[in-house]
Design goal:
Length: 220
């Protein structure tokens, strides 16, 4: 017997593997400190803990009031998923995306954007977000940023200055330069829903876990 994995990008689990996953979630529920997340939010946070074995995300993870509903609506509408790096795109459940008619995109590796970043003294991540806006991949998209704070800051600038309107931003860049600041800036936005991690912690694995959790919820 095999089942669809909720955790590993659409890989197939054996019955034994599914049992291990259920036991893992039960362990997290038993060991987690009390929290104020609602059931849908907790399903996201729990999957992030499952992906990292880090219970700090129980508390560090923040949700815009409309984050869950906006994310589910975007997925069910087949909206694009815009990723800052290939690691996120590769980790998302292709089986679940196909079921919703969603496609994941990342532009950071395009040679012309690398050259543009060098010429303008910016980062590749900044140019990738600008190009995504030009190509119509930003408005209405579910945006996942786990690696590049500059990508998140650029999306925020495009929202503030150009009126860009992603459906949801999962903003979790990790690091020591601008990572915490970029997430703090995201959490100050009221016009676009977001899910974010407070402070320096984060990473592409956490974004994958959060978006895959949303896909599980959207399929229920």
């Amino acid at each position: 017997m095999i089942t669809l994995s909720d955790a590993q990008g659409g890989a197939l689990l054996t019955a034994a593997g599914a049992a291990i996953e259920r036991e893992s979630f039960a362990t997290i529920d038993a060991e987690a400190a009390p929290h104020d997340y609602d059931p849908a939010q907790w399903s996201v946070v729990r999957r992030m803990i499952h992906a990292s074995a880090d219970f700090d995300f129980n508390g560090l993870t923040r949700f815009h009031p409309q984050a869950i509903s906006a994310g589910l609506a975007a997925l069910r509408a087949g909206s694009p998923i815009l990723c800052d790096v290939e690691m996120i795109r590769a980790g998302l459940s292709k089986v679940r995306m196909a079921g919703f008619g969603c496609q994941a995109h990342q532009l950071i590796d395009r040679p012309e954007l690398i050259e543009r970043a060098r010429a303008e003294g910016t980062t590749r991540a900044v140019q990738a977000m600008r190009q995504a806006a030009r190509e119509g991949l930003l408005d209405g998209a579910l945006v996942g940023i786990g690696n590049a704070p500059t990508a998140l800051l650029e999306v925020i600038r495009l929202i503030d200055e150009n009126g860009a309107r992603p459906a949801l931003i999962v903003g979790m860049p990790v690091g020591f330069v601008s990572a915490a600041d970029s997430k703090a800036a995201l959490m100050s936005i009221g016009t676009v829903p977001w899910i974010a991690i407070e402070g320096r912690k984060g990473g592409s694995t956490l974004v994958v876990a959060a978006i895959n959790a949303l896909m599980v919820l959207a399929g229920e």
